[in-house]
Amino acid sequence: MTTASTPESAPGAARVGIVMGSDSDWPVMRQAAEALTEFGVPFEADVVSAHRMPHEMIEYGSRAAGRGLQVIIAGAGGAAHLPGMLASVTPLPVIGVPVPLKHLDGLDSLLSIVQMPAGVPVATVAVGNARNAGLLAVRILAATDTALRAKMAAFQESLREQAYAKGERLRAEAAALGAVSGDA
Amino acid sequence: MTTASTPESAPGAARVGIVMGSDSDWPVMRQAAEALTEFGVPFEADVVSAHRMPHEMIEYGSRAAGRGLQVIIAGAGGAAHLPGMLASVTPLPVIGVPVPLKHLDGLDSLLSIVQMPAGVPVATVAVGNARNAGLLAVRILAATDTALRAKMAAFQESLREQAYAKGERLRAEAAALGAVSGDA
Amino acid sequence: MTTASTPESAPGAARVGIVMGSDSDWPVMRQAAEALTEFGVPFEADVVSAHRMPHEMIEYGSRAAGRGLQVIIAGAGGAAHLPGMLASVTPLPVIGVPVPLKHLDGLDSLLSIVQMPAGVPVATVAVGNARNAGLLAVRILAATDTALRAKMAAFQESLREQAYAKGERLRAEAAALGAVSGDA
Amino acid sequence: MTTASTPESAPGAARVGIVMGSDSDWPVMRQAAEALTEFGVPFEADVVSAHRMPHEMIEYGSRAAGRGLQVIIAGAGGAAHLPGMLASVTPLPVIGVPVPLKHLDGLDSLLSIVQMPAGVPVATVAVGNARNAGLLAVRILAATDTALRAKMAAFQESLREQAYAKGERLRAEAAALGAVSGDA
Amino acid sequence: MTTASTPESAPGAARVGIVMGSDSDWPVMRQAAEALTEFGVPFEADVVSAHRMPHEMIEYGSRAAGRGLQVIIAGAGGAAHLPGMLASVTPLPVIGVPVPLKHLDGLDSLLSIVQMPAGVPVATVAVGNARNAGLLAVRILAATDTALRAKMAAFQESLREQAYAKGERLRAEAAALGAVSGDA
Amino acid sequence: MTTASTPESAPGAARVGIVMGSDSDWPVMRQAAEALTEFGVPFEADVVSAHRMPHEMIEYGSRAAGRGLQVIIAGAGGAAHLPGMLASVTPLPVIGVPVPLKHLDGLDSLLSIVQMPAGVPVATVAVGNARNAGLLAVRILAATDTALRAKMAAFQESLREQAYAKGERLRAEAAALGAVSGDA
Amino acid sequence: MTTASTPESAPGAARVGIVMGSDSDWPVMRQAAEALTEFGVPFEADVVSAHRMPHEMIEYGSRAAGRGLQVIIAGAGGAAHLPGMLASVTPLPVIGVPVPLKHLDGLDSLLSIVQMPAGVPVATVAVGNARNAGLLAVRILAATDTALRAKMAAFQESLREQAYAKGERLRAEAAALGAVSGDA
Amino acid sequence: MTTASTPESAPGAARVGIVMGSDSDWPVMRQAAEALTEFGVPFEADVVSAHRMPHEMIEYGSRAAGRGLQVIIAGAGGAAHLPGMLASVTPLPVIGVPVPLKHLDGLDSLLSIVQMPAGVPVATVAVGNARNAGLLAVRILAATDTALRAKMAAFQESLREQAYAKGERLRAEAAALGAVSGDA
């Protein structure tokens, strides 16, 4: 892989586009934005509805790579068509977040996003788990970025430390129930 | 993003690792290999079982980035733990392929792979759709590789042309049923 | 409703467009064509893939009403986006046929088609039941067409007669098992 | 299609009948009425229970076309038989709204409505989405009504504008999280 | 309960009506007939389609009690409306048999039959298990018929004996695998 | 059917036994008791747990017919074994009520009750619908009891009248939304 | 089985290890601890996350038997990998508790735990039912421990007595509704 | 744990009882027997049907511990009551195997077995996976048996070796597709 082949990404310009069908999805989708912020990855966020503004949605997807975006994160619920439609008009990796609606617990959203036909993949994460969409975007960018990968490794180390701390609290609570010390 | 920050990948060395719990998954998973071959992306393939060789599985994931891999594709069925466990020990993007088993039509495989907790994402594709896993790996690598991205765009164009050809055949068949020409 | 307000439909021109993502859906979708043929409703049929030719799909939907189509029937499987996307770019009624794929028995197709957000309805029929899509198109056209409605009423009468004939055969078979005559 | 063949619909008379099994379904089903009101389509609404007044239900369906109705919208929950039974006694298009009950999240309602046998279609919309039933009725009437179709096109344009407005609000919120402007 | 209050049932006249939507359901439903034959309960069998002959279906249910039937067994698949509709027009107990169709494995049939609203029960048996519908009809008639109840008790005893015989065969097979005798 | 063959049921003695695994099921199951009370059918109610008092459960079922019971109604949740186990030790008709628990919305309860093997039927009603279990017991007893059947017919008539009254209220509400009178 | 072959378990040392992915699972999992406490079985409890501290998780499982543990109870939700991964690195019996998360009602957790491939079993209990995990651990230890087995038998007797007491309360409540005494 | 407290198990007497509702379950359940044979654990196998021989089933469970059994493995399908009913009458650990029937793919069997109420656990394994039931029985017995535990550890090691061998074959096949050697 030569330098020349690396797509240009203007300094400070968004590398990740976070889109969703409605601003009502923002409470879920902002977790993707927060994850990107933690890693210092510039992003943009917008409402791009497959069903209410289909022409603009196609336009958004078609222009994404040319504008310098490198990953798209799309959240949608119910008959969730946004991630798959964007994937059909861009060569970029598209991450789909199944947003749970009032009924069916997100199972409809999940199947509508993940069950894409051969040729057009969508990288699907767990129901409502936009934070993981953000982290997956970071991993994707870090696939060819040593510095970002080091940050991800450090982040994973911090997860471990948080788990340790939780273990300490739990052992204290369990001791109150008569638990034996694990060191015994 | 500077050149210096790009992880080293020796010429000809595998950029994608395709792993699965058993060689019985190969008829499904080889479609990922074929997709990578079409795009000229070097890969390796191996049996890495989360449940039968857990230590080696952890080892595989832990060493993957250091060995020059940039993406991991993991296929598994039933209580499918391989993609998620690999994701927990590598900073690389991990793509999970739910392999359908004899019962439950892959729904167990899908949920076991996609429903990862916050912090450790797996990029999940459709049940049994390893081809899309391969294509997603290409998109991920192409996120920062102009030449590969152009190939993906050309591939997408070829999908369109195949669909056109299918349409031509279909219109002929439908005409036999009395269908009016779409141009009328 | 005045004559003036009736959209022009050239004699012999297609009133219904039957579209699907691939010609592999034809064995299912041709049943819609056959139903329309039985009622003398002119139709066209084509491959219009949401994921492989998204621009043409949008174009197809956007131009459908102007070309004289009055109803669209769209069949799709898995993450089935075609019916909903067409509905988003046409004011015509769109009928969706969930095509069952190899896994999940069409449940993914059904949910992907029927669970449309408020604003953009798709008239969904049973999994794999393209014949009913054709019949629904006839009912829609017959809503304002006395002659077609009379044909539909006659068709429903013929269903009754077929059921009678089946009953006769069944009573004979049941008598062999010792069933009492229903007239007794 | 000649003027003569257009079924007579007295000025001001209901063109759409909205029926449901109980007045407890009204909070869901009134959204269909509201949609029709927005488009100026005259409708009637009533309780017609398949299970509590089956004879009257059959009567309602049998007489609907003769009374000048052109579309029927039927909402029901659980073992939801109303839409399908009405469809069996009328040549009119019948739209089914799966009303979610306390348990099973409307999945029972959806399957009971959509899985109709060949010969008798019901145009099914999303669980609890009576607004889309109203909009689908408008599309059906607009299939042969230029003026109504223009209203539907204008409505779809308004959806787009609402989506734009939502996007504006979202971009502002996202900027507070550090999002880059999409224009950058 | 006095003798006078017992509904008249002419000798040899059908006490159970077995109905189904199509003769294609007969291979499943004949098992109900066979069970009734084993117990010497006179029955009739017919095609009564809720969707193809709704008026006759209502008529069948409305007249059933007057004709001397005491139990109705109704089989149906998909959006299975026959059992519930019959229950709405007769005071007789109605037994519903969910007939599995090609897709969804009978789950749609089951939910369409069992999830009846308060007021109108259907006694539902397992998917495809028409034999149990026949046996349930016998139990219902035996609730007030000592002789029939004795036959049912004897039948249950025979089930036990069959199970014993199966056990004997199994122990022999297991011994070949090295199983210890259960008496040891 | 002769008088002699009618099982003796002492005046005032319980004809229906309502049992459940725990008194926590009573809020659901009391609706069965209320239905029986409305029809003047004497009943008993008790806790009979398949899992916590299996010997007594078997005893209860084995003695039920001899004690004069004619129908058993059994409610249970989760791995709901009570209805099926009782059915295996009594020749009486057993009605099963799937009680929904905290998770899975009663789907586990429903399948555990309805999917009985050939030979031992359970008459299953809707999830949580104990009222229908009571009404089904009345229909079963009324199968051979003219007076009770007349009461059931009158009850069904009252359902119709309630539905009418609901319709009246609904039409008034709908008129406020601009609905046309159905008589127009 | 000789004494010599019995694994050493230091007096007072933990015989059961209760682990979970996060301290947020403790409200569910503490019920396992309480059950063990009731039976006087020494236990330890800790956070051991398959995804956040995979190396330590493998270490925990690998060392469990050597440290004197005889049973492991592992709770996890969503893509629940902890029980299965521990089972792959220990010869001890591992009990899995599917912890329900916000969406999908624990169905994902259940399938991710129970559907283990041949070779590596996990003893799975009901969704959210950690108390049963504790009781199962007691039964496992009691398989070769006469004293503990006697305690379990006594516990089962106490369940019966509690059910009796519940029955007494229920009969009183039912009598208020007019229920006949079961002894009548 | 003292020697005195170890339940007596006569040399050669069955330690594990494998039971099932019908000999038609034997092709599935014999895999449990084979696993036990591999580990030299004496077992018995029999038909014990919860629904066809309930009294004998209760008897079997009640006497199991006294006869020297230490673990029970019970397989059942559909409304699978055998494992849970046995667990209610024995203090022994009971392992449940959900046997898949013709419809619903074993989901009914799984839920009927695993969703046991608090107080009476069943150790559930994967749908149709009787081999794992046998291996789980071995782990349970090995919890207090050093020699058996060593065999289990050796067995797990052999799984690893088989996985290696599969990997070798897979790498050869993949090389034919152009895969890079993993060592590269």
Automatic annotation (TrEMBL), chains A, B, C, D, E, F, G, H:
Keyword Translocase in annotation: no
E.C. numbers: 5.4.99.18
Keyword list, A-Z: Isomerase, Purine biosynthesis
GO biological process: 'de novo' IMP biosynthetic process
UniProt-listed SUPFAM superfamilies: N5-CAIR mutase (phosphoribosylaminoimidazole carboxylase, PurE)
GO molecular function: 5-(carboxyamino)imidazole ribonucleotide mutase activity
Family: Belongs to the AIR carboxylase family. Class I subfamily.
NCBIfam families: purE (TIGR01162)
Name of protein: N5-carboxyaminoimidazole ribonucleotide mutase
Organism from which the protein derives: Thermopolyspora flexuosa
